[in-house]
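User: I'm putting together a small comparison set for a docking exercise, and I want a reference complex before I start. The sequence is below, and the ligand is inosinic acid. Could you produce the 3D structure with the ligand included, as structure tokens?
Assistant: Of course. I'll restate your input first, then give the structure tokens for the complex.
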Amino acid sequence: MSILIFATNNQHKVEEMRSILGNDFEIITLKEAGIDIDIPEPYNTLEANATEKSSVIHRLTGLDCFSEDTGLEVMSLNGEPGVKSARYAGENCSFDDNIKKLLANLKGTIDRKAQFRTILSLVLNGIEYKFEGLCKGIIIAYKRGESGFGYDPVFIPDGSNKTFAEMELPEKNIFSHRKKAVEKMAAFLSQ
Ligand code: IMP
């Protein structure tokens, strides 16, 4: 079984990755690897931040690892919050603060089209490989559901009438941006 360090402190993402990758890969969290750092996301693109996160962890450990950076891109807001999705409503804001700001910015807007975009950066034997996953959908005007995290309560993926927060993980994974990116990585790794 291949062992990969997942460069994140987000337990939701770790659970999603494990549920997608199953038993083929052992995913080690930063905590399990004994690494206690807040990984910076200093850049203006998902791609550059994903590279930064995986290369920081690779420099620290010398081991194979991967990171991912995801943003919610709302078409009528010119792609915002995008790379700023985690801190849309300001530094140290909550998921709820971000949703409130998003819904306020979309108030009265008819075009509610949005997409989650994930960039996954894998460092394998010191070389970086990137994979992208997209999930298109819409932003609804009020929150529905309790599962998941982030913008899940206001995002309905195309092909469903439920928000991500109204789905259990296996159902979210049918649509998930992260799943699409991870499946590309898994296919690459098993070549
Ligand atoms: P990160 O920078 O990749 O950790 O993600 C940025 C932000 O995007 C997170 O803090 C969440 O608010 C949001 N986000 C990322 N993935 C998802 C998802 O699958 N569902 C809902 N929100 C997400």
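The radius of gyration is 16 Å. Residues 46-61 form the longest helix (16 residues).
User: Thanks, that's exactly what I needed.
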